[in-house]
Design a protein that fits this description.
CATH topology: A middle domain of Talin 1
Oligomer: single chain
Number of helices: 11
Order of helices and strands: HHHHEHHHHHEHH
Structural class: mainly alpha
Number of domains: 1
């Protein structure tokens, strides 16, 4: 048990340091290529911090554990939105770049609507559903890069004018070093999350915590730790746009990349192990999917309409998450 505790602490350290390097590398690359932080957060950073979900769901799919493959992605979206982003907003509300935010938000709801239609109308996800979700992922990345390149010249001209007025150009870090920071940071985050989840589970079992509670807390929250660490690190460093972009991008990738990969590997049906108040209706139809959609609406709509985030959004989302957890534990 001593080893489990030491490895648990090591995982925590790796997560913090990995998040620190990952944010530094991402921001430096964004500045070098004159890319908006929100866009970098919604693409590169989000892919890196979604790796644990991809690994967990893919492994579960290989082993035929449909409930884990399904619940990990949906639960991570809820956790990312109603807990991680909620904490960030409640602590430090920020302005948002509406034009940059629009693409990942609209993409998420398109993917979510498609996902929900399959779940509610058919009740099972075939391999073509997984392939369609993966195609959505490719299209999103293509459109994101194309949009960035389209607006790149305008941004460069504006920044060049500012630099000429200041009389000197800002010193840039070496590109290879930024890439190394990005890759090593992502690796440390993934390894740290695994150490924390695996050894945290052993510690919880040793303490006598029920297996269902272990699965709910350590798997769902454990795979979302990279997003949490990245969000906190970004917040501390004053890059709140990166944090927001990371959460929204990670939510989108949980649908199109995580679910798409798992379903393509081994198609599965919507889990019915847990029913809503013993009515025989899958709890996912009544609680999980509606909470996922509602939390994203609360997060995204005011941000796009008003161009800023408010503390009340964070508070409402936290209340929603607490209520969701109470339902999972008590009912």
């Amino acid at each position: 048990m001593v080893w489990a505790i030491l490895l648990f602490l090591l995982g925590f350290v790796l997560l913090i340091k990995g998040g620190d390097w990952f944010v530094d590398g991402s921001v430096n690359i964004a500045n070098r290529f004159h890319l908006p932080e929100l866009l970098i957060g919604a693409t590169v950073v989000s892919i890196g911090t979604t790796l644990p979900e991809v690994m967990v769901s893919s492994t579960a799919a290989f082993q035929g554990q449909a409930q884990t493959a399904y619940g990990n992605a949906i639960g991570s979206v809820i956790c990312n939105t109603a807990l991680i982003s909620a904490l960030t907003i409640a602590i430090r509300p920020t302005k948002t770049e509406r034009k940059t935010l629009l693409l990942p938000v609209v993409s998420f709801f398109i993917a979510a609507i498609f996902y929900c239609l399959i779940a509610y109308l058919i009740g099972e996800f075939s391999r073509w559903t997984g392939i369609t979700l993966l195609v959505m992922f490719v299209i999103y990345m293509f459109v994101s890069v194309r949009s960035t390149l389209k607006n790149k010249n305008k941004v460069e001209e504006a920044e060049a004018a500012e630099e000429s007025e200041e009389g000197e150009k800002k010193k840039e870090t070496k590109l290879w070093l930024d890439i190394v920071l990005l890759i090593v940071g992502a690796a440390l985050i993934a390894v740290g999350a695994k150490l924390l989840v695996d050894n945290g589970t052993k510690i919880a079992a040793w303490l006598g915590v029920p297996e269902s509670v272990i699965a709910l807390t350590f798997i769902a929250l454990g795979t979302s730790l990279p997003e949490l660490v990245t969000a906190i690190t970004s917040l501390v460093k004053g890059h709140s746009s990166l944090s927001l972009g990371n959460v929204i991008g990670a939510n989108l990738f949980n649908i199109v990349l995580v679910c798409g990969t798992a379903i393509t590997i081994r198609p599965f049906s919507v889990p019915v192990e847990k029913t809503f108040l013993d009515t025989g209706i899958s709890s996912s139809f009544v609680i999980d999917i509606p909470v996922m959609i509602a939390s994203m609406l609360i997060l995204a709509v005011p941000s796009i309409i008003k161009g800023k985030m408010y503390r009340w959004q964070g508070i409402v989302l936290l209340i929603l998450y607490v209520a969701y957890c109470v339902y999972q534990f008590v009912l």
